[in-house]
Amino acid sequence: MNPQLAGRLAKLDIHGMRDLVLHLPLRYEDETRVTAIEVARAGFPAQVEGEVLSCEVQLRPRRQLVARIADASGSLVARWLNFYPSQQKQLTVGSRVRLFGEVRGGFFGDEMVHPRVKPVAAGEGLPEALTPVYPTTAGVGQATLRKLIDRALKTVPLDDLLPEPIRRQLDLPGFAEAIRSLHHPAPDADAYSLENRETPGWRRIKFEELLVQQLSLRRAYNARRARGAIALAPRGRLPRALVEALPFALTGAQARAGAEIAADLACAHPMQRLLQGDVGSGKTIVAALAMLQAAENGWQSVLMAPTEILAEQHYRKLAAWLAPLGLEVAWLSGSRKKREREAELERLKSGELLLAVGTHALIEDPVTLPRLALAVVDEQHRFGVRQRLALRDKGEHGQHPHMLMMSATPIPRTLAMTHYADLDVSVLDELPPGRTPILTKLVSEARRKEVVERVRAACQGGRQAYWVCPLIEESEALQLKTAVETYEALAAALPELKVGLVHGRLKPAEKSATMAAFSAGELQVLVATTVIEVGVDVPNASLMVIEHAERFGLAQLHQLRGRVGRGSAESVCILIYAQPLSETGRARLKVIYEHTDGFAIAREDLRIRGPGEFVGARQSGLPLLRYADLERDAELIKAARELAERLLTEAPVVADRLMARWLGGREALLRA
Question: Which segments of the protein form a coiled coil according to its record (predicted)?
Fold first, then answer.
């Protein structure tokens, strides 16, 4: 294979013959029959065969190749807007050709635009199977892929690696039979079931894909448990002192998660735990208790957050909670004065400071943490695998730090069973008492003035309001312009109120000053881009307005809504939307209007978006499922999970061969 073709195939994640076998069709075309031109139906693909009556290059209205083909029943026009001289040669007058394409009504009768052409002899036989159409990339034609895949099917062993009892129990065909039925389905195969991935062949491939994913995740899990970490005994004095000093009692869920984490930290292998809980369920206090367990053993811990605003929020909370216990927290952010930052870095390096909070500034080179035993990563899906690894490698004592990842985007159970099976999961499934339910209202853009009046009334009643500007993916500059314009319009419409503005382009110090002024009640209205999505905690804010809500994802809408309802006042979230709504936009707004439970929202989100986007930002090196569907194939996941455990203990060689078939040498899955 020439290097140029190999490079193009690599874009399709094809690196060898085995990968070609598992590069399965997107859809199929039926070239097993010829349709008479007269009965070919407009709007449907068909294959016709006939003689070329005429063929010429026309220059008006634009340069195009136009041919007329006829059989005994009638004739049609074939038209190519982009063509090569070789195509023109295939269509010499009097030659016989087969055309495959969609028939449509044209100005001069029926026509096909850009049909596929194949010169044939009279009476030449037809293919005996449906023609596969594969996912492809620029420079790799279908004919090339078909040739390569057919060669791979002849040379790669298609051994059946699944135990016979499992195949019988799940009613699965053999691997070779399944693969051949998908690359070359029989002419009488049900095209609908094939394209919807509902045939026995597809079921076999999906099960094997899920099984390999489970194998790689369980391997990662087992490999991690074989590594060494500092065992942090749960002495309990500092955590107990913090709990007793808090102005609130821990919820049952917080106490349970805290105990699970404390038990993990006491082990001599690194914890890898995901703490997930809805917006406002109190994850920070659980993280603080874990950090205290490290501190009372004389070891360091860090908390890393994706944005400066969120990191500063965590720092302020931790500093206030821990100062009475005689513990100081280092604050590492890009915005701090150089001298202050250097002094703090020195104290961390000497081991004098045991706790640090920061953004990804924490993983930059100058930061030395010689006694790092615990790393807490908030909104973990926002960080890539390299960033998490860099944090893990900060420990200089030859041991891996314990990792606690926190997420306020709840993960549906099927997703946790597949993409997160290498983590232990703790769930905060109850909100602290005193949280008021948030009322959600959908309002059309035409009623914008009423919303402004609602903001006025809330602020005159002593409350505060957020006004979030739309997400404009194409341009950060556009988003900024919108935020500035909205700020100016609201300041003019509400002259008696103090309105502030915060966005991603502000200097960190300006951002902090604006947020501090809003927290202190000096500003009544805060106009913001999505920088306030996570971590902002102002109990007096009871009104959230989100403009162009249809442009936001469900997780973002739920996060933003969670910025209110943090005090005792009744809170309202107003979603302003613009018509016309897309199908997806309408579905999202319906879900956010009907549900307040983050787990229910996450399930619906998975259904609307599919798993790719949901976990894409893990950047984990883990292959996302290409063929299995988490909702439709949920019952296969459980069976794949159980079999993976069995194979790893009873038949590791079979597990190795399965993984080699699907992952080649790319098992970069012992992940951060």
Answer: none
